[in-house]
Amino acid sequence: MADNYLEKRYEATLGAGRTKVKRVGHTLDELLLKNRSHRAFLKDYVVSRAELERIVAVGSRIPSACNQQVLRYRLVTRGPESDIILRNIRLGAALPELHLPCPGTEPEAFIVVCSTAPETKLVNIDLGIAIQSMLLKAVEMGLNGIAIGAFNRENIRRDLDLPLDPLMILAIGKGTDRIQLVPIHESDPHAYYRDGGTHYVPKIPASELIV
Questions:
Q1: Model pLDDT for residues 123-175, shown as the tens digit of each residue
Q2: Which of 179, 177, 157 is closest to 167 using CA atoms?
Q3: Could you tell me the CA-to-CA distances from 188 to 97, 106, 149 in Å, in that order?
């Protein structure tokens, strides 16, 4: 394809000298970089149910394996149900000495992801797509989140009176962690770590992902 092909087609269609429409919002690359797992949240910001509804709404627009669409969501804002979730989750498994979340930084809004079908490979495909899409939507809205797989499923289902089995929990809020990506080689340690108040996340560069 010739250089500047799209620009030439633009001019040929709309005429040279026309003002081009400026991009509004974030690019996907920008959203991906902002979409980091936060384990500390601003208490002064209370996430509303309406905000959680906007995040979950992506579920009606994303792909689904075999178009099964089995995922369902419980929305939890600040209150007794959020206290139940906090008692039954674990954050920062690679940093047990920090006992995350630290007091006063706990998340208080959650999306509990459930399934109408038994957990299978296809359900987990949907789960991965949904989790990533919802977290990206949260970032687009100026919020942050973290996907939590370490939680007491039995207690969560019983104490929230869920009609379905919970598969994953998203914590949503205004994140306060300072997070930085660190390039590594495949043979290097992959565990995240903290130093000087910064949370470092090792990532294999794109050049080493291609086989």
A1: 999 999 999 999 999 999 999 999 999 999 999 999 999 999 999 999 999 99
A2: 157
A3: 22, 31, 24
Q: What pTM, to 2 d.p., does this model score?
A: 0.86
SS3 1: coil
How far apart (Å, rounded) are the C-alpha atoms in residues 169 and 89?
A: 9
Distance CA 88, CA 154 (A): 10
What six digits make up the tokens of 199?
Answer: 């949370």
Contacts of 164 (CB under 8 A, 6+ apart): 72, 114, 115, 116, 157
Q: How far apart are the first and last CA of the chain?
A: 26
85: its two tokens: 């979730």
Distance CA 107, CA 172 (A): 7
Q: What are phi and psi of 140, to 5 degrees?
A: -60, -35
Torsion angles phi and psi, residue 125, rounded to 5: -60, -50
Nearest to 44 by CA among 86, 78, 91, 90: 78
Helix (H, G, I), strand (E, B) or coil at 154: helix
